[in-house]
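Question: Hello, beginner here. Any chance you could explain the protein record under this note? Any guidance would be welcome.
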Amino acid sequence: MKAVRFHGARDIRVEDVAEPTARLGAHDVLIKPITTGICGTDLHEYIAGPIVTPSTPHVYTGATNPQILGHEFSAVVADTGSAVTNVKAGDRVSIQPLISPRDDYFGRRGLYHLSPQMACVGLSWAWGGMGELAIVNDYNVVPVPKGVSDVQAAMIEPAAVAIYGTDRGGVTAVRLRLSRAPRPVRYAELARTLGVQVGDPAPATAVRQAVLDLRRGKGMVLDPNDPDTRSVGSFFTNPIVTDAELAIVRSAVTARLGPDATVPRYPAEGGSKLSAAWLIERAGFGKGYPGATDPAARITVSGKHTLALTNRGGGSTAELIALARTIRNGVRDAFAVTLTPEPVLVGVGLD
């Protein structure tokens, strides 16, 4: 059969090699590789090897160069040993290439990749994915469903490595750099405040002051003398509705506000994004609610920003949740839209 074999640095050959003919061991699986990837390890071997491939017989597998390459690959099962139960002939599989003892210190703990005797199909094993046939262990083959292509099956092993790396990794330091150079203004409200067009540049100091003024006007800048600043910002997210749901909302808006009323909406993935603030106000929860009817209320809608719920002083979590629930239910009753809280609620909920 044909196989791609590594002989040494910059010496990789397509050669005729003997097919596996020995009787399969109880846990052996004979496979026909379908799609094989070229790993960075393969490139390193080609440029500067042998690095991982063994120049002398491997301590566990006995493999030695020349080595059939290929450890990221998909295959179809041709035959199985007598004790193999996880696959059968004809199954498409993805190869998990690590090989190591199952009964040493690490194997008994499921930490096969830490074994000092670890080997790898296509690097330190008699067979690899760049041959027409290969023999692997039953634990090296993972069946793949019909919806997974041969190429995708070959990418499972490198994808698993990447996911494991990101799970194990972490950001230990971040360095930010601020520029004094003018930057384009992206938001229409900010552009109007600065007296420029969207996309025009503006001095950083002017932008900073304009942003502070805008946020202060919505109670979003900390001020001990302004109770509207005692909030978590917007309490509800802008809801996204499907076209069918939008028709129901429009009908409810017309019934409540008349034929000339139009709910603000914006294109969004999955449908249309509606203005939560507009819905809240039109459902009867205006700025400062319920201040007019309950001047002693300690939790109210912000007097500046309908989406914010504020603590006027001495308010409790129970009072905050009660007001949020009243608003959520009121909007749902008025317009058939259920608002979702934006803050993460811990130990409490609106239901």
